[in-house]
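Recap from last week: sequence in, structure out.
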Amino acid sequence: MTYERPKIVIAVIVMVCLSGVAGCGTGNSEELQLIQQINISGTITNSQAERLSKVKFLELESLTTITDEQVEILSNVRELWLSGLTSITDAQAESLSKVEILSLEGLTSISDLQAQKLSKVKTLWLNGLTSITDEQAESLGKAKGLYLDGLTSITDAQAESLTTVQFLGLDGLTSITDKQAESLNNSDELSLSGLTSITDEQAESLSEVKGFLGLSGLTSITDEQAESLSKVDMLYLKGISSITDAQAESLNKVRSLVISQACQPLIDKYKNQ
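Predicted structure tokens:
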């Protein structure tokens, strides 16, 4: 996976910690060896789950099977990564709803009931889903952080349901409607790096994103779009290889701008004025 949202840096740090770096709060060396053993075997026993239930962060990315009882035991972990699972039961979804930060990126589909239960998780990674129902979007929209990078399209109704998500990743979308842009602009962090172009109206709507906006799939923007996007606090435009002086003057107003090296000198020109 490749994430570029600032919030995801925290997740990457967590994953490094869980891979065995000492001093990251995952427990002692015996627990780290146990994690490695489980990831190698792809299975876990009840006693192993009990031993690991006291750690703060737990990455079991290669775990492919788990029982309802084991999930209930592990639900005490604050941040839990179970991306090797390709399906879960309703009972497991209920147990996992107690986890604060949860990755289930191996799931390719979930039921409406499971979405309802998982909506209680504060930050949820479900990047393996390729489609969701309107009812699922309404449930998942209750999460504080939600990452659905496997979706290639959403409906206007689904975008409206996701409007209250503070940290939202939809990097798989290749296009959005003007109405969707208006619905999604309430996020503190929004990543739409699968978009290769946007309209002037969409740029104006997206400029209302409070914190971070990821649009690294764009290869060009208009002067009007640059002026609109200059209102964003943190902006990623890494896919753009050339800009006009007018665009550089506008984008210079962004507090934290990540853009291609080819464009940076022109941005710096206006920063120094």
